[in-house]
Amino acid sequence: MPTDVWLWPVLLGVLGLVFGSFIATVAIRWPQGRSPLHGRSQCDGCDKPLAARELVPLVSFVFQRGKCRGCGAPIHPSHFVTELLGLAIGVTAGVAMPGMGGVAGAAFGWLLLALAALDLTAFWLPNLLTGALAAAGLATGLLGLWPPIEARLIGGIGGYAALAAVAAGYRLARGRQGLGGGDPKLFGAIGCWLGWQALPLVLLAAALIGLAAVLGLYMGGRKVTATDRLPFGVMLAAAAFTVWIGQALTPLPASEQTVVRVELPVEVR
What we know:
By secondary structure, the protein is an all-alpha fold. It has helices spanning 3-29, 59-63, 77-96, 100-122, 127-142, 149-174, 182-194, 199-219, 232-249.
């Protein structure tokens, strides 16, 4: 078995655990105005600084049974879930596209995970993070990764314009906000990664995910009305990474047309 068949999923999976742990911290601290980059990790209940053995992704949560070793307060399950998703993104990217393409895909997934976590927690898609997602997408295109940079640029502009037009039309027709201001920007940033051709599929998949979420809430006994807020950025993020997986598993289009030469028999006189 070639080494890279298992090496890339393992490396990206380990990185995914680390990034997932950091993203969980970002999703909790940033909306509260606290920097995720300064200060030691601490218990959310008693503010006790966490030791190194309490910071091992997934493992610490399991061995501590989801509770702080000091005060016994429950650890927010978002830590475990986000770390698990970070692991899944890294492994999936490494399996789907071993090599630098998989590294780029994993970075795409982790940035989407951070945005989805913030949108789910605080209905907030920070411009800084969305801009970083767009810039990284264009950078990978300039490095030669498929889709080409032209398709990414059109996707960035067209994606933003399309959802911004939908939001403006809804606001004009209904007299209230239908989409958050960050959703068109996120859709444009996704276009910078996947290209304009993939955007209709992303939007369709996001709508289906949203419909499934609403049905799940209904089945759980919660009523959802037309005025209830749903974090559409979460749906867009999940749909975008799913479409990226499909792109990664699809053979690239031929860069040049195949030329077939037909030799005619020489006329005998």
